[in-house]
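User: My instructor asked us to take a sequence, write out its structure as tokens, and then describe one feature of it. I'm not sure where to start. Here is the sequence I was given:
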Amino acid sequence: AAPFRGEMPPLMLVNSAKRVVPDAHDGEVSSVCVDGDHCVTAGWDGQLRFWGKHDAFVARSFELVQRAQAHEDAVKTVATIADKWVISAGLNGLCRVWTRSGEASMHPSQIPEPTPEKPGDEKPNGEDRAPPPPKHPLPVDDLGDDAVEEVGLEMEELRLARTERKRIMAQYDGPWKCVGSFDGGAGGCVNNIVGLHGPDDAGCAQKPPAVAVAVGSHLGSMTHLVRILDPTRNWATIQTLEHPEGVTKLLRRVGCELDGLDRLVTGCLDGRIRVYARDPAEPDPRPPPVEPVEGEDEEGAAGAGAGTE
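Assistant: Let's start with the prediction itself. The structure tokens for your sequence are:
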């Protein structure tokens, strides 16, 4: 007899929808990542959604914690790079750093220099300006008091819409904050982001010493590569891995059984899979960190550094 005759295959039962989550994206969901007890989704509506209880029972799972207008255009990808740290990337290659740790940045080098205050400038210190929540055409101040009885049907509908708008706007307040941005695509579109953690951080919980971004074509861009970036030097480029076509996927294999080294695996529009491994004999291309010298001013420290080179 044929298997599953007269009954539904178990796989179909697993994949059938059990619940439609409210307050989801207005359009396609482009990327998903998990950060501890939070799940982060990115959409073509330019927003991020931060969800709690993603591992709870189906009937109570995925409670919305916060919305964020992350980018002016669609969000292409979002990735967890450390505990309570995620990075999102838009179609134009702009990457934004988000955290719920309460810190001002991943590293002091990413804090912008203060700028003179200008009229109408709400953030004169140069902080990153994530897009504000979308505006709504519904007036909120000209609808009268909700407690007033015997209003017309049209006014009642407007007041219900106002209540819903206030509920949605309150969802933009939450623990996640945008604390910086950088141009990850260099003219292209960032398709994937991977944190390159050290061998002593098996759980990838600490801030990584480097971050890899996969870049592909966008709007005529000819940028096809993987960029290795240094978050301790304000996202300076450490190395580039050139590709003949756009890089569509980037994965990291931690501790290969063959030699114990990590691997970077890329998928490219030319149909080929490429595997990269770091040569342990090659020196670290990053410059050594500058150690502050007590009792010397900046000029004296610069002179001493020049004399030792």
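For the description part of your assignment, you could build on this observation: The chain has a mean pLDDT of 78. Try explaining in your own words what that tells you about the chain.
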